[in-house]
Amino acid sequence: MQDVDAVIHTAAIAGVWGKRSDYESTNITATELLLKSARAHRIGAFVYTSSPSVSFDGSPQSRIDEQAPYPDRWLCDYPRTKAIAEGRVLAACELGKMATCALRPHLIWGVGDPHLIPRVIERCRQGRLRRVGTGRNLIDIVHVDHAAHAHVLALQKMLLGDLQAAGRAYFITDGQPIECWEWISTILQCAGLKPPSGSIPVFAAYGIGGVLETLYRWSGRADEPPMTRFVALQLGVDHYFDISSAKERLGYVPWLDRQAKIEELRSWLMPQS
Questions:
Q1: Higher-pLDDT residue of 95, 85
Q2: Is-above-0.85 flag for pTM?
Q3: For this structure, is 78 an active site residue?
Q4: Exposed, middle or buried, 214 (CB in 10 Å: 0-12/13-18/19+)?
């Protein structure tokens, strides 16, 4: 790590299904190894890309801030392992030696997205997409440019050894909560698709997810079930966040025009539809 002043650690296994050992080795062990190496090479700044799901236990989250504790129960291994890794990063903060922080960007979107947007579109095309609940639950999203900008700001603060910014986690969003089904419908319309009209109650989706998880584990199937408890609740309940701390301590202020970025998304998706 010669001539390296800082580390921005973004790599992880995401998703809601897979081997526990894979999540632990990639999300926890790899983070610990990076921290160890950073200390050994006297790197002064370490910014970790975490996830808002580290605070999600299935209950609605309405403009919560970073004081919300880690849950006592987990609905899947992704948020569990990300929370453990986040905790290790924050515990490693030692001003004067290595300043650390964790960013929690929520549902990153934008042109070129290889994860969220293609997944929603493919499920719609396969006829596997249903509204969970009323679809009016509020969620936060964050454009990729906003997420990248937040990382730059955090890096600058860590390199300065900022006492007010280091050793903390930060929610990062566009600052404009949106209804879940409105957002999903917008993605589909940008791809020239009609949003499905079918819906399922939240409690029913959660129950189905639990049954499917059990059956898939018993049968040893590696592919992801069409519904899980985590996905059911992420789709069916509020989860949006207070970004005051990021504004005050990092200087993060969302500035993009969301509608203009949606039009960019439409231009990107329509040729592929």
A1: 85
A2: yes
A3: yes
A4: exposed
Q: From CA 27, how far away is CA 15, in angstroms rounded?
A: 12
How confident is the model at residue 54, as a pLDDT? 97
Residue 45 CB neighbour total at 10 angstroms: 23
Going from the N-terminus, what domains does the chain have, and what CATH number goes with each?
6-272 (3.40.50.720)
66 within 8 A of 124, measured Cβ to Cβ: no
Phi and psi, residue 91, nearest 5°: -70, -25
Parallel/antiparallel/unpaired status of strands 6-9 and 45-49: parallel
Tokens of 112: 């070129």
Q: In the structure encoding, which two tokens stand for residue 258, read together?
A: 């969301």
Q: Using one digit for the tens of pLDDT, what is the confidence trace for 111-133?
A: 999 988 999 999 999 988 889 99
Give the Cα separation of 173 and 177 in Å (integer). Answer: 9
Across the range 48-67, mean pLDDT stands at 96
Six token digits for residue 172: 């990062």
Work out the mean pLDDT of the chain and round it to a whole number: 94
Q: Per the structure block, which two tokens stand in for 157?
A: 């603060």
Q: How far is the first Cα of the chain from the last one, in angstroms, to the nearest whole number?
A: 44
Residue 15, sorted as left (phi over 0), alpha (psi -120 to 50) or beta, turns out to be left
Q: Which of 23, 48, 78, 252 is catalytic?
A: 78
Distance (Å) of CA 113 to CA 23, 108, 143, 273: 22, 8, 10, 15
Dihedral sign, Cα of residue 126, residue 128, residue 134, residue 135: negative
Q: Which two tokens stand for residue 161?
A: 């050894």
| Distance from the Cα of residue 77 to its chain's centroid | 14
